[in-house]
Here is the input.
Amino acid sequence: MSKRKQAQVYPGGFVMLYRHYTSSPAYRDLKPPAKVLLLEFLESCFPQERNGRLSISVKNAAEKLNVSKPTAIRAFNELAEHGFIVLVNGERWQERKAREWRLTIMPCNGREPSNEWEQWNSESPALDDSKKIYGSTFVPSLVKKPTQHWSKNVPREKNSAIQPTNNQ
Here is the structure.
């Protein structure tokens, strides 16, 4: 009698991708960095109670994806545009906290997945340019207006500090 082979155990678990969303037009339209970033989000989503508090900074994403920061930023924007991730909390860089995200393909806070990626189509993207998460434009509700403006027209003398001006 031959001995049975024991099942090989891989440490660290696995990430499951369902054909339902990998065969969707939204997923097929993603560029490779965005697809890999989605895998990173899925990997960091376990246990599922973490969904809604997923935090991957641009710097960490660039290191994990082995790409530049602008490419990582484009990957975040693309995932948000296609409806795979939603911004929950904006960054608090003063507290050294990255943005917090929610995966729409996973349950969050006891609710069913919102599956916003299913409504995506190439003619009408989910986000317009005024609502990009990263880049030159931001989510309008997260932008705080400065209380003081630094004027370029303030006459400068040697060894004098630039004083803020209030232009309100």
About this structure: The helical segments are 19-22, 25-29, 32-44, 58-65, 69-81. Residues 6 and 96 are 46 Å apart (CA to CA).
